[in-house]
Amino acid sequence: MKKLTVLSAAIALSLSVSAQAAEELRLLTWGGYAPQEVVDLFEQETGIKVKVTKSNNEEMISKLKATRGAGFDLAQPSQDRITSAQKAHNIYKPLDLSKIDSSQFIQSMLAATKDQSTLGGDVYAVPHVWGSSGLIVNKADAADIQDYTDLCKPAYAGKVTYRLKRPTLIGFAFAMGEDPFAAYADKDKYQQIMEKVGQKLTDCKANVKAYWSGGDAMLNLMRSGETTAAMAWDAGGWKLNKDNADINFVAPKSGALGWIDTFVLPRKTKNEEAAYKWINFVMQPNIAAMITESAGNFTASKGSDAYVDAKLKAQYQASFSPADIDNIKWYPPVPAGLEKIEGKILDRVKAY
Amino acid sequence: MLVSSSTASGSRSRIKLGMWLLLAPLCLWLLLLIILPHIELLSFSLSDPDEGGLTLSFYGEFFNEPLYWRTFLRTAIMSILATALTLVIAFPVAFFIAKMIKGRSKGILFAMCLIPFWVSELVRTFGWMILLRESGVISSGLQWLGLADSGVELLYTDATIMLGLVYSAMLFMVVPLVSTLDSLDDSYIEAGYDLGGNNWNIMREIIIPHATPGIVSGCIIVFMLSLGNYLTPVLLGGKDSLWFTEQIYTQFITRFNWEQGSAFGILLLLLSSLIVWLGLKVTGQSFTKTMG
Amino acid sequence: MQTDAIDLACENICKHFSEFTAVDNVSFTIPQGSFFSILGPSGCGKTTLLRMLAGFESPTSGDILIKNKSVLDVPPNKRPINMVFQHLALFPTMNIEQNIGYGLRRQGVAKAEIAERVAAVLKRVGLPDSGKKRVDQLSGGQRQRIALARCLVLNPTLLLLDEPLGALDLKLREQMKIELKQLQKEFGTTFVYITHDQSEALVMSDQIAVMNQGKFEQVGTPHELYYQPKTAFVASFVGDTNRWSGVVKSSVNQEDHQTQYQVTTNDGLTLDCVSQSSDIPVSSNVDVFVRPEAITVSLSAMDNCLENQLECQVENILFDGAKSQIIAIDKQSGGCITAAMPQTADFMGLKAGDAVYLSFSAKQALSFSEKQGEMNASL
Ligand SMILES: Nc1ncnc2c1ncn2[C@@H]1O[C@H](COP(=O)(O)OP(=O)(O)OP(=O)(O)O)[C@@H](O)[C@H]1O
Ligand SMILES: [Mg+2]
């Protein structure tokens, strides 16, 4: 009899151990946002394993749409992709803000994100990493490129690269004197702006060496000197700057496009507790600095600047004057249906 | 009599049952992995997301928007071209392997055709990029030899896509060709010479007719592979190179327009089958003859 | 029909495959319109020789002349020679008409004439209505005839046939033997026919070359080969035969220029025999060959004039109608002897265990010195 209880206790113990060992956090995020060292530290502290899946905005939403919000415990789409995707596909779950240590956040940023991701009274997102897209310029060859439209100057024929994605459309629209964000609510107006931008991009085609699609391809093009200017993310520019002082990120005259990548809960998250633990863990200033180091972008963690490498801070200051920072155009939430308009324009640019 | 016939039918039904048991995994596989997804695609492509109910508007979109059908046409023509090119290159290779060499070197040469498939398609494509880019191996080689004074860009053109397609499809042409050519007894070729034939008409009247099943099945495989290729045209292609699969990917992933993507998927299936069917008709082949 | 014109002459042809000698110094001539067979065991080099004639292999040394002109530099598609392949090689992708017309098309013959000539040749081989059929719709024998027709329609100087009947069943083979000979006579084309089946060669040929290990052992008419074999190999390969190995005890010159020898066989018999060569020394080793049909069978001892008489016991009777044979055990040596079964009433009741006397004349017992015998040790 005694034996039996010992046995059952052993089984129970082993079961609980295995249950604990199986605890894991399935994170759907961007490259660089969950560096191995941070994952290791997190596991040391909490015993939770983190399974990282690297992705981008569109794929994140598509994946969650395909599974109706299952398969991951925590995701990191950009701030402008939350309310619209939630309205259209119902793939997220509201956050329980009481489980998040809000004192670790830069308050203005936290407030802005909460505000933009509120739907039906529920808050869906808190900010994590922020950055901008603008221009990466090799000053040795193309010192006079200051705005997106400068990429189309005849002098740079065949020496330019950008993506055929929506940021390019938006950036060019601003550079052409339009305000696409203001036209978000007015589909016809937006269509009109996009047609104009599409024409510009078609005319500009001779200047493009290749449309880049992966960040590495863009870095290679710039590093090898095959192109002298690109439209890309700030972090890419700073990365290149480390190897070649001539290349750096330039905030365009019409304004860099600012984005904030957030934390959201997929609707069918299985391990909500672990998700909150991860958020609170990575927002600690010293951990956030590690992420800044690996992603190349700054975070919404208060005080993490103090831990960040001086070189990156210097690069950041070289790219952004205080006026440039004020001039950043932050992406507002995208209303549904814009992707269709943009998509057709982009297809046409590529086809003709 | 009665007894024996009843046992006979009993054993027959047992055999039938056994056959069904054997076929069950195959049927299940067909159902789960081929038929069901396509039914799902079909139902997506026909459903109206805004109002519910059925709609053909997503198919209409394909025909009304020149961009889409032109992209398909371009993809199809490039694929046909790639198929023809692959055939032209693979045939001598296959002939050499099957007829000109004997013994061990045959196996070695055949294995060499397999080497490109030891690495993934992505790595293979990146390999091409490293070779062909302006700052790449071939360009610097040319400069070093003094044949070019500045970098030569060999990437981002339709020719590069063609190169990538032909390269990755080669094996799928060589294998069926080698196996049909292998089955051609040398005595047929010798009989051709003996009766006064020269190289050209022996090739045309004896070897090619014999190899036709291999040529046709190789062409079908290569055409379908090229048409369905995604990475090669996207990574190696130029500014103007829109590929139909890229279109499908975009519809699904960046536009969240699953209905349109499904319609394109079904159209790709139907139109490519149509092209294959036309090809078979034009060359006077039948599918069963080729596969049988 | 036969004239003195020579269609084909081979002079000292050799073929080496690296170390291996497949054809060894072969010379022969074939007169126009004759049926010439090359008979030999498997692997003796028949196909190799034929392929050299057709032009698919070139001889290591020697010369091939067609109508007195060397053809060594002429490629196969230009030689006035056609070949019926071992497995016929009818093109499966073409119908019968197209198969037969292939060679004519290569010669640039006009379409109408092709159709005419194809129809004519089909009629001559007895298949007038099969022009539109596919190859696989014909029987083995019909295919055989189509393969012949495909060559004959080109009026070749020389037609080479590589064991064309090998794939057919026995009955059909018997029938095709006669048909082939018939066709050859009708067309008047010179045939070079390869076979390892001696009966095919004997029935059809005007001349037979017996080939062994790359060499020609003997060239002659079927009659010569059968009755006057020049070597032990020919004696044993052409036709059935009994064979004893022994030692020469004595020799006597006969009045008809033949030498008669007395031989003691290894199993202890004493046989009187003759040889083509007169200089086999006493006590040298010889092989003695006696054909079954040369043996006289009697139920009681005969005191007739035949030099050799053996008392035997019937071991077995192989019944094959007119070709039935008696297998008998020689009482003295215990050796086995095969004799043809006489087709007379006396022997109807013969059964195993009966006593018989087998006798044959010295002239029917051919002896060859062992030197020649060595060659067929492998047989
Ligand atoms: N290409 C070759 N390389 C090396 N040896 C060869 C080659 N072709 C034939 N031989 C050899 O030459 C010899 C004669 O071959 P061949 O084909 O002429 O025989 P064959 O008399 O036609 O026999 P069979 O009656 O079996 O057809 C064989 O021992 C064969 O192994
Ligand atoms: Mg042979």
From TrEMBL, chain A:
<keyword id="KW-0813">Transport</keyword>
<dbReference type="InterPro" id="IPR006059">
    <property type="entry name" value="SBP"/>
</dbReference>
<keyword id="KW-0732">Signal</keyword>
<feature type="signal peptide">
    <location>
        <begin position="1"/>
        <end position="21"/>
    </location>
</feature>
<protein>
    <submittedName>
        <fullName>Extracellular solute-binding protein</fullName>
    </submittedName>
</protein>
<keyword id="KW-0574">Periplasm</keyword>
<dbReference type="InterPro" id="IPR001188">
    <property type="entry name" value="Sperm_putr-bd"/>
</dbReference>
<dbReference type="Pfam" id="PF13416">
    <property type="entry name" value="SBP_bac_8"/>
</dbReference>
UniProtKB/TrEMBL annotation, chain B:
<keyword id="KW-1003">Cell membrane</keyword>
<dbReference type="InterPro" id="IPR000515">
    <property type="entry name" value="MetI-like"/>
</dbReference>
<feature type="transmembrane region" description="Helical">
    <location>
        <begin position="262"/>
        <end position="280"/>
    </location>
</feature>
<comment type="similarity">
    <text>Belongs to the binding-protein-dependent transport system permease family. CysTW subfamily.</text>
</comment>
<dbReference type="InterPro" id="IPR035906">
    <property type="entry name" value="MetI-like_sf"/>
</dbReference>
<keyword id="KW-1133">Transmembrane helix</keyword>
<feature type="transmembrane region" description="Helical">
    <location>
        <begin position="109"/>
        <end position="131"/>
    </location>
</feature>
<feature type="transmembrane region" description="Helical">
    <location>
        <begin position="159"/>
        <end position="178"/>
    </location>
</feature>
<feature type="transmembrane region" description="Helical">
    <location>
        <begin position="76"/>
        <end position="97"/>
    </location>
</feature>
<keyword id="KW-0812">Transmembrane</keyword>
<feature type="domain" description="ABC transmembrane type-1">
    <location>
        <begin position="72"/>
        <end position="279"/>
    </location>
</feature>
<feature type="transmembrane region" description="Helical">
    <location>
        <begin position="211"/>
        <end position="231"/>
    </location>
</feature>
<feature type="transmembrane region" description="Helical">
    <location>
        <begin position="20"/>
        <end position="39"/>
    </location>
</feature>
<keyword id="KW-0813">Transport</keyword>
<protein>
    <submittedName>
        <fullName>ABC transporter permease</fullName>
    </submittedName>
</protein>
UniProtKB/TrEMBL annotation, chain C:
<keyword id="KW-0067">ATP-binding</keyword>
<dbReference type="GO" id="GO:0005524">
    <property type="term" value="F:ATP binding"/>
</dbReference>
<dbReference type="InterPro" id="IPR050093">
    <property type="entry name" value="ABC_SmlMolc_Importer"/>
</dbReference>
<feature type="domain" description="ABC transporter">
    <location>
        <begin position="8"/>
        <end position="238"/>
    </location>
</feature>
<dbReference type="Pfam" id="PF00005">
    <property type="entry name" value="ABC_tran"/>
</dbReference>
<dbReference type="InterPro" id="IPR008995">
    <property type="entry name" value="Mo/tungstate-bd_C_term_dom"/>
</dbReference>
<keyword id="KW-0547">Nucleotide-binding</keyword>
<dbReference type="InterPro" id="IPR017871">
    <property type="entry name" value="ABC_transporter-like_CS"/>
</dbReference>
<dbReference type="InterPro" id="IPR027417">
    <property type="entry name" value="P-loop_NTPase"/>
</dbReference>
<dbReference type="InterPro" id="IPR003593">
    <property type="entry name" value="AAA+_ATPase"/>
</dbReference>
<dbReference type="Pfam" id="PF08402">
    <property type="entry name" value="TOBE_2"/>
</dbReference>
<protein>
    <submittedName>
        <fullName>ABC transporter ATP-binding protein</fullName>
    </submittedName>
</protein>
<dbReference type="InterPro" id="IPR003439">
    <property type="entry name" value="ABC_transporter-like_ATP-bd"/>
</dbReference>
<keyword id="KW-0813">Transport</keyword>
<dbReference type="InterPro" id="IPR013611">
    <property type="entry name" value="Transp-assoc_OB_typ2"/>
</dbReference>
